[in-house]
Amino acid sequence: MEMIIKVTGLKKYYGEGETLVKALDGVDLEIERGKFIAITGRSGSGKSTLLNMLGGLDIPSEGSIRIGGTQLEKLSSEQATIFRRRQIGFIFQNYNLIPVLNVWENIVFPILMDGWEPDKQFIMEIVRLLRLDEKLDRLPLNLSGGQQQCVAIARALAIRPSVILADEPTGNLDSRTGDDVIGVMKMAGIRFCQTIVLITHNPLIARMADCVIRMKDGRIES
Question: What global pTM score does this model have?
C-alpha cells in the first residue's frame, strides 16, 4: 500500500533550560492511504501538537513530515496555506460553521474561497451520504449538534482532500450521536478513499479505527 503520511524524527520544543517543554520528542510514523487512524493519550501527551504538524499549522523544531509527495517543513507560509486549503480537510470539536450561511453555503465556502467551481454532483453524493439533502437551506442554528458536525464533515470532504484531520470531533455530542458521526466519517473515508487521522479520548471510538496510536510524553508509546 502507498504511504500517504511519513513522519521522521519529529520534535517540537517550547522554551529552554528549566522551562523546556518537549511537546513532541522524536516521533516516527507512517500511515497508508485510505486508513482510519485513531490517536489516543492523556492531555499533554502530544496528540494535538502532532495533528497540528500533520496539518501544516505549526513548524517542527526538528524532523520531517511528508504528505503525499510534499515535504511540509519546506513550504513557505503562503505555500503551506494553499496546501492546507487543497489537500487537508479539518474537522474540529466546535464545528466552526458560519452562522449566517446555510448548509450548502457552508459546505462550498472553502471551494469558492479558492476560486474554484464546486462539483455539485460530487458534493450532492456526500450530502446524501450524510443525510443532509433535505437540510441544505437551513442555518446552523436550526440543526442538531450531530447534524452540524455532519455539515463540518461534508465541508471537509467536499474539497477532495488527501487527508482528513479530526480533533475530538464527537466531544460535544452524546455517545449515540458521536458513534453515528464516526461511522459516517469511516464510511465516507472508504467511499472516497481518504485517509482519516482522529484524536479521541473515547476507547469505543478508538476501536472503530483500523489502527490506534497511543501517545505519552510527546512520543508514540504503542
Answer: 0.88
